Structures are given as structure tokens and as C-alpha cells.
Queue: 2 jobs
Job 1
Amino acid sequence: LEASLNTLECACAAWAAVLGQENVTTQAGELRAAETATFPTGHRIPAILRPGNREEISECLRVAARFQIPLYPISSGRNWGYGSRAPAASGCALLDLRRMNRILEIDEELAYVTVEPGVTQQQLYDCLRDRGSRLWMDATGASPHCSLIGNTMERGFGHTPYGDHASQVCGLEVILPTGECLCTGFGRFSGTASAPVYRWGVGPSLDGLFTQSNLGIVTRMSLWLMPAPDCFQAFLFRCDQDEAVAPVVDALRRLRLAGVLRSAVHIGNSYKILAGVQQYPWNETAGRTPLDRTVMRQLASRMHFGSWNGSGGLYGTTAQVAAARRAIRDALRGRVDKLQFLDDRTLEMAARFSSPVRWVTGWDLSRSLELVRSVYGLLKGIPTVAPLRGTYWRKRMPPPADPDPDRDGCGLLWCSPMVPATGVHAMAVTRIASETLLSNGFEPSISLTLLTERALCCVISIGYDRDVEGEDDRALACYRALTAELEHANYPPYRHGVLGGYMRGDAAHGNLLRLIKDRLDPDRVLAPGRYEE
Ligand SMILES: Cc1cc2nc3c(=O)[nH]c(=O)nc-3n(C[C@H](O)[C@H](O)[C@H](O)COP(=O)(O)OP(=O)(O)OC[C@H]3O[C@@H](n4cnc5c(N)ncnc54)[C@H](O)[C@@H]3O)c2cc1C
């Protein structure tokens, strides 16, 4: 122990020589906070480093190799539900890239922006607004303070036609574990203007190696933005029966394949919506958990939302949006119990007359108005803090003005299988999720996102209160049971957190990845355990 403490002290002194003492932390309180996620991980962090540029990152990696203390990079560290800031293995020093937060270029004509890892959703949104840009970004439902690069490194997604983030970026600048810097695509030819506009470059394409991996630290990325459409409308729909989601998914897939729908369409079940508008109904359940289906149905009917509740956006000229509206009406007729279109004017009316609006639309927007507003905003790429409050679902305290699920003991584990976009698969995956969560004592809060023309992402959340004794263990047991069931049904997750899982597959695939890792990271200094078998 003494030797390793001594090694750590020497490493910290070397890192401080590179970064300045003020950018190296070993203060116990800060370390414990950084190790705290929304579920137990047990992974210890011996130091936090805050580099300010890529040269400093390279030097930090060299020091890491010399003292055999690996680094774990985070861009904003808000990877809630998947591990927050906690590394995938114990003993990694945290490489916090938040100081590198410059927006390096915005090209209005070609509609892209180049950013560093610390740039947040809110920062880009404010920047576009302040310069009167005609470009819209995509935003996730996570906090406005989440990093654009951090989310893309996990291949996260948002709501607009640019929602599948990893497919809307190019020209990565990457520091390899040896400290060397490379650029992907055309970026390798210095001086070419094509790097931010064409992903593949020429020859083998490397971009995919650096998302969901531990092969490099991304220090720069260009992401494409959407020209603001002439006309925008959102559509919201509701189905009152559980099984109704199957024909709806089939109908929406056909509309996406036909190009009528371009945005990601999100469909949340009743549990998901309830957690979006209020905390656990402790009174209605006399304090018992989980919230059973019967009480859930009564609450949904009282609050006018369905078993399934969907939202999507229509973008284009006025004529295109009108044609898309007609197509959606035709496709969903007889399949949904309510279909509603919203635009800025209707939403403003809803805000002004939140109760009378019910006679206009049939929707009770009074309690759900904030949820509708945030969903509507997300379809226009406006970041929001509203969904984050849902992480306080089972807490006995109300969500504070500055929600922080790690700090406040909000329990959250996400499990996100990707399935083919058919009604049959939607029903199968949601049935597994509902049965497993309820039988393990948790509410099955589920969303289905038609992310592409062909793929549906099911996001299942296990929400709980970490301050209740035994709940951590019960939630982890539920998570393990759920991942085992999904693995058995051949539904792999599109991403996973620091608990790992479901990486086993074809041996040749694993062998190649190990070979690449061994060559790129001979000293094993970068994020051990991250997306490894
Ligand atoms: C209420 C709520 C709603 C959410 N909604 C969404 C949603 O709509 N869509 C969605 O995708 N997620 C969502 N999330 C999950 C999560 O919070 C987001 O994905 C968030 O963007 C990830 O955190 P971050 O941006 O801070 O990334 P970070 O935590 O900084 O990074 C994530 C991981 O990527 C790796 N990494 C980070 N930076 C680099 C780098 N520069 N180079 C190499 N590797 C790096 C690290 O291993 C890190 O652990 C939600 C979470 C909550 C609680």
C-alpha cells in the first residue's frame, strides 16, 4: 500500500508539473463525489486531472504510462444511469476535459460546428441564438449541461432528424493512448476544407473505432446542424391499450421509410409519462411500491394520458408539413385514441389558457404542460432540464432547483436494447421489461424511439431511492435479471454503462478488438474495462 501511495504521490507531482497544482485534485471529498453514480460501482478514483489542451492530455498519458495509473476521460461526466463520472474499472485517475470548452468554428453555409469536449448543449444553443443563426442543433433529454462530444462518444440520441448523433459527426481529432494525435477522415490531409463535411475521407474509415471504445481521447469533433425549416409542427398521440403500440410502430416505420417522417419518434408508456409530471404517488398507494398496473391505469385515465404516448416533429415548407400531417392522420386513423398537432401558436394558447385548452384539444395540459413544452422544445433542438427532475421519482424530497441525481441519492439504471422497428419486436421487448421490473419491485418506465427508418431503441429505466436500505442491491438484482432476459431474447443494448455486459459475441470480432487495443495501448493506460469483454 505504501509503495502504491508513493507511486500515486509521484504521479500527481508529475501531473501537477504539466497541468499546474490547481488542476490536479486528490482531495477526498471531491474524489468520493466523482466516484458516486446513480447506482453503486465500488470503483475508486485516486486523482482528478483537468487538462486545458491536447498537448497536456498527451503529457498526462505519458505520466500515466510511467507510473502505471490509467486515465479515464470524461467530457462533462453526466452519464447518469450508465455510471455518471465513475470509471469502468477501479484505480483510474479521472481526466476531466471540461476546461476544453471552445466552439472553434460555425459554418452557416455548410451547416456545421466544430467543438471541443467541454462544450455543452446549452453553450451551443446559446451561441446559435446569440448570433441569430438559422441553424438548429439536436438536443438530448439529458441536462443542458451535458457535453456534445461526451454524448456522441456513447452514440447517444436526441429527437430531431439529426437525432442519431454518431451518424451526424465527422472529422474527429483523437489523442491515442501513446500521446500521439490523429485526425479521422479528410482531417489527416492538413489544410483540406473537406474534413468537416464528408465523413469517410478516403481509405479505411476510423471514426467508428473511437466511439464506445477505449482506443483514444477525442479532443475535437465537427457536428452537422439542421437549417431551420420554414415550417415546424409537432404531433402527439395516445393509445389507451398496451397492445396498440404494435400497429402504431408498424405504421410509423412505413412513414419513416417513405421519407414522410424524418425525426426520431418517441413513444413513452404511462409509467414514463407519470414520472415526467410528478413524483411517486405515495398517497394513492399508501406508501407501497411498486406502482401496480391497476393504480397506474386509474392515474393515467384521470390525467388523460394513455398506455402509450408518442411525439414527433414535422419539418419543411408549409406544403410539405401539411402533406405530412395528412399522411400521419391517414396512417394513425383507427390505431390511436388521440392525435394532436401542435405549433408555436397552439402551445402559447395552451400556456395562456392551460385549463380551457382542454375544450379545444381534448388534452388536459394543465399538469402536463411543462412536459409537453420540453418535448416540443426538444423536437426543435432546445435543451431542457425538465426530464432530469424525473430522476427524483421515488425520492421523498421534491426535485431541487439544481437537480443532481448523483449528489441527491437518486437511483437510476438504464437498460437500452435496440430492436428492429416492427410491432412484434416492440411488444416482445416491452413485455420482457414490464414483467421483469414489476416482479422485482420497480415501475417499468419505458420509452420506444424510432431512431432510424429501421431501428427502434427501447430505453428501460429502473428508478429508485438510494437512501432506502437494501434498494441498491434490489435494483442491481433487477438490472441483472433484465439484462439476462434481454440477452436470452437476443436483444443487445445499443450502449452500456460501467457495469458492462453483453459484449460476448463472435470470437473473430473480439480478437480483432483485442489486437487493436494491444497495439494502440501497450501500457493499458486508457479506460480499462470500457466496452471490453
Ligand atoms: C433524465 C435523463 C434523460 C436522459 N436523456 C438522454 C437522451 O435523450 N439521450 C441520450 O443519449 N442520453 C440521455 N441520458 C443519458 C446521459 O445523461 C446522456 O447520454 C449524457 O449526454 C452523457 O453524459 P455526458 O454528455 O456528460 O458524457 P460523459 O459522461 O462526459 O461521457 C460519456 C462517456 O464517454 C466517454 N468519453 C467522454 N468524453 C470522451 C472523449 N472526449 N474521448 C473519448 N471518450 C470519451 C467516457 O468513457 C464517458 O464515461 C439521459 C439521462 C437522464 C438522467
Job 2
Amino acid sequence: MSKEAQLSTYLEFLRFASVSTDSSFTPHLRGCAEWLKARFLKMGLKATIHETPRHPIVVAQNEHKAGRKSLLIYGHYDVQPVDPLNLWDHPPFEPHIDGDKIYARGSADNKGQILPHILGVEAYLAQHKELPLNITFLVEGEEEIGSPNLKPFVEKNRDLLKCDVVLVSDTSMVGPEAPAITYALRGIATCEIKIKGPSHDLHSGVNGGGVTNPAWVAARIGAQLHDENFHVQIPHFYDDVKALADWEREEWKKLPVQEKEVMEQVGVDALYGEKGFSYYERVWARPTAEINGIGGGYQGEGSKTVLPKEAQVKLSFRLVPDQNPERILDHVETWVKGLKFPGCKLEFKRGHSGKPYICNPKSPIMESTLACVEEVFGDKTFLIREGGSIPVIQTFKEQLGADSLLVGLALPDCLAHAPNENMSLRNFFKGIELCQKLLTALAK
Ligand SMILES: [Zn+2]
């Protein structure tokens, strides 16, 4: 297939408005799944659409033969909503090309990163007639809403999805000349604390100073999460945290994007966090406690002298190996229940959670993947962790016993989830090349 034909396939894929969270887009997700199935069939693979309570999962395979290694390639065809639409320079589902960049919702996350693997397999087949591996493509339509139906699907279809290793391009490179392979992801645990005080809002003159103010309690809880070194103060929080290896610290010191660039990216004049750790160490290999929302009392214009009857704090914890989200929430709950504020009741509610993931970055398969990436991109390739969470990676590990090769093709400024999402066309085409190299390397 010519480069032009590959590009026009990409454009077709991007034109589906496959926004998974909004049910009015359901026909577009269906259309996109059908389009994928047709693509796979055209390549000579077997392809099936598996129904779920919401958006379908597409599975495609070559003929699996005994004695060959098995590779599962995972991606998602759904995208985030486009709001605010007025901040897009071009309509989000009418892809626009400007130089090396292609702008569209889903261009990077994840259509422009799964498609290179589909086109890579297609190119390999066109050249060699036969694939060197047993391949399974698993492309879902619910990643952006937390993959509610993927875990049960994987559990039910362990034989179908059986593999030695998983290949996923849904992470990011460090910079245009700094590809990266991600070998660890942080987990997550979330909760909400409701603080209930007096039976109704009180007058701050009549009752102020005589009754505990729930908004003050919310602030106290937030303030007590960390000590002055930004160390989390919840007892047992660090019990299962694995220490960073020396080589990790050394590798990350060499990254082309350092603290100065991060400050520019996020728009602050100083970084801050746990004492004794660099920025990358803190966001990739250390756990956090964050306030994601805090509220109570009057939020409108001007002042209103009130003691609110209730307040709330929403917390999330990013977790590292070997922390367990449920055990962490147990520790948080015990800590919250031990806080005493006269006249106030604290209610603790657990939210969603996901385990952290790590694989051996120095395994032979990781080393040969690294060599392929370096050869295709011609740049030193970094071994990194990521601060975010992709819960399905842990599901693959638990259900299929397979580690994941997380080879990101997107650039850090791809604006995933935001207006003007974009993808580097160079990386898109390099991805097609990389997939073919990997097929050969992983078959060995
Ligand atoms: Zn996403």
C-alpha cells in the first residue's frame, strides 16, 4: 500500500465521531467498529465484532499455528468529547494537515497509534504473504470511559486472547528525538469524604466561634495529608513502596526534557513535591495524595457570612509497585475515622481504583523492542515509567499472564483530550515501519 493510501486510510478512521461517553454518538462507534472489521477482513485476517452492553469490541486474528509466538496488539477506537468546540482551529472530525502535524480528535489518542500497527501488519503480509507470529488485534470502544466491559471480556475470552506478550501504543515519547518505552504505570485509588456539621447553614455572627465549621474541617484534612517535606502522613501509606533503582535515577537524569522545560510546559515558576526526589522520580516512581476537589459554603460573588452545614473533599492517590489500592483505601479510611472534630460527622466513600503495573525493563524481549525502536527512529530510546494509569495493562498481566510493550508514538504536545489534538505524521509512518520490524524481532 502506498503512503498516500495509508494516509487516506488514517483520514477515513479519523472521520468517525466515535465519542464513547455520549450515547448520541453510538451510531458513529458502530460505524467505526464495522469499518475496522472490514479493514481486517480485507487484509486477510479473521475479524469479529463482539457485542458488549455498550460499545462493541473488534477482534482480528491470522490463522494461529502451534510452535509460533503469540502477540496481542491492543488499542481503542473511541475518543474523548470535543468540547470546548470553539477552541478548535478546524472541525475535530474533519482532519486537517499542516506540515508534519495532522489535527483531529483521536489523531493521537488512539487512532493514530493503533492504525500504524494495523497498516504495519498489512504491509508485512503484502511483502511476505504470511505473518511470523500468531497475531490478535483487540480494539475496544470504551477506553475513554474506563473500559467497563473489557475486563469481563478478557476474563471470558482468555483462550481467544492467549498471548506471550502485548503490544500497546497509547503512551507518549519524551520528545521529537527521544522515543521511549514505558515499563511501569502508576495505579490509582480514589475516595470522597463528606463532612456533616450543623443541621442547617449557620450565621457566622450568631454561631461563629462556637460550632465546628465543616469547611474548616475539609481544609484541615487537606492540610494534614502531607508533612513539611511533602511526605504523605497517612500511617502505613509507604509500607509496600518499592525503592527506585540507581539505574532509573541515572537514566532519567539524561532525558532531554528536564525540570526547566516541565516548568514551561505546565506554566509555573517552580516545581514542588516530596523532598529527596527529582521531578521524574516523584511523578513516575513515588506515590501521591492529591486533593482533586474541595468545597463547601458560599462560592458566589461577594461575601456571605455563613458556616456551611456541610463540606466535602475528593482525594485521589497515584500508587506505585507494590501498593495495593484497596489496602491503601483501608489505611485512608482508618486515618479519616481517627480524625475527631466535635460536632461533625465524617462519611468516607470509596471511588474507583486500579493497580500499578511494572515489568522487567531489562528482559530480552524489552531489549529487542528497544533495539527496533532505536533502529527505526535513529535516536536513543529511553526506558521510562508513566505517572498515569492504564488499568487494562494490569488485566492483561493477571488474566493472560502477559507483559505489555508500551511503545508510545505520540509526542508530549499532542494535546490528547484537548482541543487541537494532533499527531506527528513522521511518527505515524515510523510506527508502520516499527510494527514490521517488531514482528520479525518478536518471532525470534
Ligand atoms: Zn485517552
